[in-house]
Amino acid sequence: MEWGFRIVELTKRYPLAISRGVQAGSQNLFVTVSDGVHTGIGELSPATSSSWTGERGRVQLEAFTNELPENLAIAETWDRMKEMGIDPPAMAAVDVALWDLFGKRCGQPLYRVFGLAKPRVPTSVTIGINPPEVIRERVPEMLARTGAQNLKIKLGCPDGLHRDQENFLAAAEAARPFCVHLRVDANGGWSVEDALLMLKWLAERGADYVEQPLAEGCEDGLPRLYEHRPLPIFVDESIRFASDVPGVAGKVDGINLKLMKCGGLTEALRIVATARSHGLQTMIGCMSESSVAIAAGAHLGALFDHIDLDSHLNLAPDPATGAPIDADGVIMPTDAPGHGASLA
Questions:
Q1: Superfamily covering domain 113-343
Q2: Buried-most residue among 75, 210, 309, 331 (CB within 10 A)?
Q3: Over the stretch 299-316, which tens digit does the pLDDT of each residue have?
Q4: Where are the CATH 3.20.20.120 domain residues in the chain?
Q5: pLDDT of 48-65, one tens digit each?
């Protein structure tokens, strides 16, 4: 196998502000693996305020692939990376590249390799924490440009609940002509008391669900929220691997996985299976990926109740192709072998 590594600077159309900080762009690492006939490609995307950078991932993976035995199963490669402490987004880049290569060798798109149908659930598009006047300007442009049917509103503003309420109302007003569903992601920005208040307030104003109301590490507050919840609660940052899922069962309605957080498609399949076995709903989200990683996630789309694969729609420009949004607002995988995405 021949491995390649390339860091590409990605720029967001609109900087994304969440409770933990603001991200205007990212340096993403693209990883290729070739058997001399076919080439697979994967992607590392760093999270906001994360040490999991593209350069750090490149150093880790160059050392890892230099010592990687030939003909390991993809799951064995994933397990080896996990044992060696490689950053999850770097694991995802290798894992997705290997699955892409496998699909190309089979001559099949990955959704067929996994025995799945194409997705039917429309994606959300995300509006970050901004002044209300900025939200009123951006939301109509985003919805008109993308044709999305769901709007995810980032809350957990450091300025307090009054700002969260102002921002939600501004987004809801701007989105009203588009008749979209409204969802909320607090990114761990609330206390238990704040979350109890906001869950009730948001339910009265038509929100579909709330994602990650409490910070990672504060999961002991989830049972109280769950007991009194007026709308579904999902966790995101609280779940990285399948082994984390049993700990939140009975405390939330569902989990959100991200390829960058769990290390790729191999673990994503395990997380879904574990979540379903505990009666939990499922969601797939994203960080700051291009169409490469988004396309990979889209091939698993049939497994999810909710989909939030929109980061490539906020790039100016997206350096990759292969994850189009269709007329129904679904990020639709192509029928090309592998995940079907390519980097310019």
A1: Enolase-like C-terminal domain (3.20.20.120)
A2: 309
A3: 999 999 999 999 999 999
A4: 113-343
A5: 778 999 999 999 999 999
